[in-house]
Design a protein that fits this description.
- The protein has two helices and ten strands.
- It is an alpha+beta fold.
- Strands 3, 6, 7, 9 and 10 form a five-stranded antiparallel β-sheet that branches. It has a three-stranded antiparallel β-sheet with strand order 1-2-8, with no helix packed on it.
- The radius of gyration is 31 Å and the shape is rod-shaped.
Length: about 180
């Protein structure tokens, strides 16, 4: 039998085409898992802002305490965030005021005396941005009457997307008058 025996030569182009298709499918699956993990599970595209406020009593002058209202924003996330309407409100509970709870504040103590209300941003600023890894500090100088016993500051800002906001507050005792006279 001396005839021609067929030899099996693999069709490499077809095999490589199949391997390429499999690699592309695997890459799409891996990419989808990565997107899910980074942006849905870990929410890396969402705000991760540490927001705190403080009231610092500096000195007593005439019948007032000179105070610094401080707001700190630290972007612990991985994307820049733009915010606007960065406001504060400082109120007091003065000597002689009744200690009342208000349902509109979740049955918390009501501070009836508005001392100062404003913005940490200049009027000309439409928004500000907070870069990843940076801590920004904002302040406003105000005065608190010495007749005040306790003060509370509420602060908030809105994200530029218009859907989300962030709030913080702090309550402080006003230093006694006798300790302030040096």
């Amino acid at each position: 039998m001396e005839g021609n025996t067929p030899t099996l030569i693999p069709d490499w182009s077809a095999i490589l085409s199949d391997v390429k298709a499999i690699v592309e499918i695997v890459a799409i699956i891996v990419g989808g898992i990565w997107v899910y993990y980074k942006f849905i599970r870990q929410r890396e595209d969402h705000a991760l802002i540490d927001f705190s406020v403080d009231i610092v009593f500096h000195a007593r002058k005439d019948d007032y305490w000179i105070v610094e209202l401080v707001a700190c924003l630290e972007n612990k996330g991985k994307v820049q965030h733009r915010v606007h309407d960065f406001t504060f409100e400082l109120s007091s509970l003065d000597r002689g005021d009744k200690v009342e709870l208000k349902a509109e504040f979740g049955d918390q103590v009501y501070f009836p005396n508005l001392i100062s209300k404003g913005s940490f941003l200049p009027a000309s600023a439409k928004y500000f941005f907070n870069e990843p890894g940076l801590k920004n500090r904002y302040s406003h100088i105000a005065r608190v009457p010495v007749k005040s016993e306790l003060v509370i500051m509420h602060s908030n800002f809105k994200y530029i997307d218009g859907k989300h906001f962030h709030t913080a507050e702090v309550t402080k005792a006003v230093p006694p008058i006798d300790l302030s006279q040096k």
